[in-house]
Amino acid sequence: MRKFRLSTTALALLCAVSLGALGTADARPGGGSSIGSRGSHTWSAPPRTSITPGWARPMDQSATPRMPPGYGSPGYASPRPMPGFGAPAYRPSYPVRHPFMSGFAGGFLGAGLFGLLSGHGFMGGMTGGTSFFGFLLQVLIIGGLIAFVLRMFGNRGQRSPMGMPSSAGAPPFGNAGGSAPVTLTNDDYMSFQRLLLDIQAAWSAQNMRALASMATPEMTGYFNAQLSDLASRGARNIVSNVQFQRGDLSEAWREGNLTYATVAMRYSMTDVTTDSMGNVIDGSSTEPVTVTELWTFVRADGRGNWILSAIQQAG
């Protein structure tokens, strides 16, 4: 019994040390990092605002590839230019050009190919001598559907975007003062504030379905990885009493049929990390902390709602 008690005590101390390494400051949604994509602006510093007068931390993780310095500029020379051609124009990666479609296509391919490889497929699979021909038939059907969807969205991206209604910004949001090709409405600012609160609530409830409806597939993947890491350590992060204080529009722009908006937001919250028994192992349930971050939202013009596509830490 004495040896068992000593072993239990040692295990408890080991868990406490492991959980203590998590750090409350890095446990909130986004993990205190700069993650996500801002279209072609991903690797450009957002314009400064009154609440973010310093620098913004560059992206730590992003699906958008970083291009070489000066890429696409008149003086840039391609390492291996083809005869008769200059440097190719920058073309964003598929997840950047289609942040909504990347999750659909990925899930469609993942589920479909997994079913085919496991012998079930979309049609329930076939048996006997027709299995091979059934496999080929399903591959052709899947390929045709994906090609149709990609072609449909590609044609939409080439259309001229429709104009946004003109309206002054709604307090407590301000404007960085720079020229913004897109004018946001009061409803847009209210959507940003509501998303801030709803994402924090879904995070604390570990509701991945809700998070997936409010963020791009890329951001949803980051959230899922962070929550899984906490769970593997036997911990849970709970953010509560979130109070929005102030926001400033940094920039808003269009890319094809997508509209982006980067907003600096300052908010306070109660941020605690608990163990599997609900005991607080880090943070304070009585002392709120104040955070300033730059959140980038994206939506398809004329359809859909704003969703989160990036979080950046303010200096």
From TrEMBL:
SUPFAM superfamilies: NTF2-like. Residues 166-313 form the Tim44-like domain. It comes from the Bacteria. Residues 41-52 have a biased composition (Polar residues). Keywords: Membrane, Signal, Transmembrane, Transmembrane helix. SMART domains: Tim44. The chain crosses the membrane at residues 100-120, 132-154. InterPro entries: NTF2-like_dom_sf (IPR032710), Tim44-like_dom (IPR007379). Residues 27-75 are annotated as: Disordered. Residues 1-27 form the signal peptide. This is TIM44-like domain-containing protein.
